[in-house]
Amino acid sequence: MEIQGRLLEVGETVDVSDRFRKREFVVEYADNPQYPEYLKFELVQDKCTMLDDYNPGSDVVVHFDLKGRKWTDPQGQVKYFNSLQAWRLAPAGNTGPPPPMPPPPDDMGVEEFENIDDLKF
What we know:
It is a single chain. By secondary structure, the chain is mainly beta. It has one domain: CATH 2.40.50.140. The protein has one helix spanning 110-114, and strands at 2-10, 14-17, 20-29, 37-44, 59-72, 78-91. Strands 1, 2, 3, 4, 5 and 6 form a six-stranded antiparallel beta sheet that branches. The longest helix has 5 residues, at 110-114. The radius of gyration is 22 Å and the shape is globular. The relative contact order is 0.19.
């Protein structure tokens, strides 16, 4: 999934345990500018440094996964948690079309290229 918006807040990296760290950030998503949404994302482990090059106010594209967890507390009650886990961050506006396909290799002649479906295996 991906979303484009304005970076509103950038949190510090937090060491949750000696082997797990995360960093949260908030993006203002204005699909309808009259009613913007404020979405909190998280980065985990080595992805935490991706925010180092961004400041609040930057327009960004966030690629993320929607994560959901089920947890049973000590009293036996089941609780559910959702998170938006980002795995890529890019400046907005750099999402143009993919580059064109490269031409066929020079050693393949035009006739061979046109008859590529006739290859015998």
